[in-house]
Amino acid sequence: MRAERSTIVFNIIGYIVISIFTLLCALPFWLIISGSFSDENDIIRDGFKLIPQNFTFDAYKSVFQNPEQIFSAYQVTILVTLAGTLLGLFLTSMAGYVLSRKDFKYRDNLAFFIYFTTLFSGGLIPWYILIVNYLDWKDSFLALVIPGLMSAWNIILMKNFMKSIPDSITESAKIDGAGEFTIYLKLILPLATPGLATIGLFLGLSYWNDWFAANMFITTESKYPLQFLLYKILASAAVLKTDIAGNLGPDMKPPAETLKMAVAIIVTGPIVFLYPFVQRYFVKGLTIGAVKG
Amino acid sequence: MSGLFKELSKNKVLFFMILPALLFFITFSYIPMIGVYYAFTNYSFDGGLFGSPFVGMQNFKFLFESGVLLKLTKNTVLYNLAFIFLGNILQLICAVFLSEMIGKWFRKTTQSIMFLPFFISFVLVGAFVYNLFNFETGAVNALMRQLGLEPYDFYMNTTPWIYIIIFFNIWKGLGYGTVIYLAAIMGISDEYHEAAKIDGANIFKRIRYITIPMLKPTFILLILLALGGILKGQFDLFWQVVGNNGMLYETTDIIDTYVYRSLAINFDIGMGTAAGLYQSFFGFVLVISVNWIVRKVQKDYALF
Amino acid sequence: MKNRLFKLLTLCITTALLTTLLAACAGGNSGGSSGGSDKPSGGSNTPATDKKPDISKKVELNWYLVGDAHKDTPEVVKEWNKLLEKDLNTTVKLNFTTWNEWQTKYNLLLTSGEKIDMIFASSWADFFKFAKQGAFLDLTDLLPVYAPETQKDVPEHDWKDVTINGKIYAIPSTHPEYTPDGIVYREDWRREIGAPEIKDLDSIEKYMELVKEVKKVTPIKGSAWNEVNTLFRTYNDFKNIGGDSGVIVAKSYDTPREVIAYPFTEEFEEWVKRMKTWADKGFWPSNTLSIKQESGDFIKTNTGAVYWRNTPGAAGFISDVEKNYKGIEMGYFPFSRFHNYVVPNLGINNGMAIPKNAANPERSLMVLEKLRNDKTYYELMTYGLEGHNYALDENGALVSPAPGKDPAKVTAYGIASWGWRTDKNDRPSANRWKGEDALIEEYKQIARPDIFSPILMDYQPVKAQLAAVNQVYQQFGQPLMLGLVPDVDKAIENYRNRLKSAGVDAVLEYVQKEVNTYADTRGLK
């Protein structure tokens, strides 16, 4: 079939717009990569450059001086991300499904009950007291996994995705005598793949990127997740600017700019490939087949 | 109350399915919420949360007395509106292009690349901004000098920062938001497009009359969700980009940065909580009203 | 609809609140019993009857230090625990806040009432505020029983600084420190460009002028705030009262009762006019307030010349440059030479304290007693493993790492051990900057006691005004001090008006009152 003129025009505009956006998004990341292979003095003197003036592996060498720490942090991050994402996705999709059921009378009230939590919060202190003093999760992986399982935002998005699944599917299954949980598990979940992929992606990213929970609750170094190592390095650079610097020994030096870049690359490297993986689940037209079949 | 129990027994399984979520939010959100009481006390270690002296609205005084609250609120709201609307519109445009364009490889690669800024911490964003815009060695001014133009001192002028900040915020969230719209587009049944094709509608018409209307609920939902945080700022973005530069506060000061500065030297739990409560309350009223309006117009689009 | 929603919401919130209240009560009770009744009885029984404290029960203590752990910390702590188990039937879990948002975390540790047996405490970590609000345990009665040697060791005036309303709340370190502000600068350039020796404000100005003209280098290439602010304070002899007091200062060391808001002085006017000329001459970049990079980094790449450092900081910086950047020669000018006196830091500039909810304060004190006074303990926890992290040279100075170790793999040990630092056990580093010893000699001759830091103020009655004043100070004061405003006279007027309407007078009045009370009790003029 010959392409229509409008389709060609659409594609030309699309290619231009998307290319510009892509370029803007790629550039800084490229600068970080280039920075991580640069000589420290070049960066201080001239700032970031697209191509390193003097190519060197120094930054990576110094990161991997202590490979055990990096590897154990990788382990922690991967385990926490996997556990949190799978469990979170299950609970979120279940809640989202219930809220999307039009015949469920209290769905608006419960949606409000959940949404309300994004508006008001008691702040850091009560939350900390809850987790440390009452749940006793200090220095426990539970503190990294459980509080991030669900968010109002994810549940409501999930509900929105599930809304587009026709009611007829649930109804016909009910007539066939299927239980509510079976309907959710066997019929709804397979149809909600794009939604699940999206929320799964978001959950995965939030676990991977989370350093704050570790910052608050983890005190054993071997339990530090990857992202926290990065922030720890950035923070130790910042403290040197304060009066406290006078107390630090002469051996305490600010981490090199290039080292920060290298760590950033090591920390984000693997998760960048999560997205192409998730893309496979963005498949069109799932519902039609199901309704017809 | 009896209605509640009837409904409970009728939809027993559904209730059980949502129960973990409810327990979760009670534990991690509602119980800690009593901490808002800090806003009304003068904290002491001997008293703790409930034993410290009650001081009424005194902790809110620093917000209202300084006379800048109106300007700060205006700044914060305007920035957030720009973030929310421009961000969502651009994400929607990208999603539409990416779903309809030809070239699988191009589509997949660009999607992935647009996600990259999400991973770049604001600390590094701050470093980039500085490298781009500083007067002596910044890339922008270097380019202007090469083109024979007068270099421009960004750090002595407040206007450009509005655009710089908006740009970087949208830039950071572009890939993330696009995914939501892409997933929503995937939920649109192909039948509509096929039928429209047979009717001779070209691609622009199909987008205009099928895709966009089908994305409207998602668009409205995302806006509604975001409105609740209208007074909460992207503290890290502002702090890392503008830093301690009082010269630029005229256009770049938001409530979060103001509160941070006010309490940085002498932190006070009560005052910090009070500021948060003001932000929450404002967002709450806004969301309730907008949701009410949406509900009147089109019940299905409302948040709750 | 509305009604039902409301009912459901009320139900949920009521449940939530009830649960919490119950939990809070239960928690309060248990906290009360362990904190309230056990401890004093244990503390008051022992001293009278027998001298040896009872250590028959094995306990694990929970200690917190600020900052980061060192790579070898787990090893070191393991060794330490071996010693502790033998001597005191105790082990310690040593935790670190890391520098990541450490102030927030420090605050949380104390506010949440976590069971912590010992924590680093310091005037720069808000010791006075926390102590006044009741965060720390009163050690007055425990010290003679569980840490008698330490009690004798710490000088009387240091104890006085940590005594609030007659109660001792911390164990200060015993290491008189001199940390006057100053600048490090390129000494080799100074000779090269023929600048005068740096000894006052004019010579600093001349130096930077020549650096800019001849070397074509911006002297303070990073953030210039610290440089200018400390220079301003010490040049005019304005003294901070009770930690950082923003714009409210004592007019000079000799007039402690004369409290002023310095932006309203003539000195300030003169200063900002001068700084305007400095900024216009390009002594620092126009975006200096946004720069996150340290001026010191630029010195190392020959693109900067001047950097603010206090004396220990300068020593560290210079020894690093001497070691790693051959061919650069640095000089140091301490601002103390403007008025020819220095004020040693308070003892509690670094120290250790026991939070109120500690489970085993007695044992914790005994561990600290060992740590401060037993050389084996002290060296292990302060310098790490001998023969690994360090070795001693013939003068008893530290060589790090120990000879034969690969410096890329083994580094000098360093954690926030400052809280238990004692001079009698302290060892110098073999590769320290030699200039520091001379400076410390110089300071010892001209030292005067710190009479301003121990003034306790929590600003409770004026905290709204203080927050507003601090805000104005940062928004308008800083650009003004750095000469970044187009019209100085207008900016001064604007700054003063803003301060006035923010309530600077109320803060001033509060501070004045507190200073008077303090001066009366201390018998100051």
If you had to describe this structure to a student in words, what would you say it looks like?
- The complex is a heterotrimer of chains A (about 290), B (about 300) and C (about 525).
- With about 290 residues, chain A is mainly alpha-helical.
- Chain A folds into two domains: about 5-55, no CATH class; about 65-290, MetI-like (MetI-like fold, Orthogonal Bundle).
- Chain A has helices at about 5-35, 40-45, 60-65, 65-100, 105-120, 125-135, 140-145, 150-165, 165-175, 180-190, 195-210, 210-215, 225-240, 255-270, 275-280, 285-290.
- Chain B has a domain at about 65-265: MetI-like fold, CATH 1.10.3720.10.
- Chain B is built from 15 helices and no strands.
- Chain B is flat.
- Chain B starts with a helix and ends in a 7-residue tail after the last helix.
- The mean pLDDT of chain B is about 90.
- Chain C has about 525 residues and is of the alpha+beta class.
- Chain C is about 50% helix and about 10% strand.
- Chains in contact: A-B, A-C, B-C.
- Chains A and B meet through helix 1, helix 4, helix 5, helix 6 and helix 8 of A and helix 2, helix 5, helix 6, helix 7 and helix 9 of B.
